What we know:
This protein has strands spanning 2-7, 20-27, 30-34, 40-44, 58-64. By secondary structure, the protein is mainly beta.
Amino acid sequence: MKARYVGESFGVDSLTNGKIYEILGDEHGMYRVIDDSGEDYLYSKDNPAPLDGSSKGGRWEIIGE
């Protein structure tokens, strides 16, 4: 599945506003996403944001299966 991240960009290797990401799966209410680092990490389905609170995060717009 693919989704666009909409929100404040954070981290050099995390999520960028308006960029489309590949979602590999849904695990315990989180999406496993290949982020800007090229690696897969878990991000909240409701409010993807950094764990350290340095950004308010954003939301996902699902754009395709």
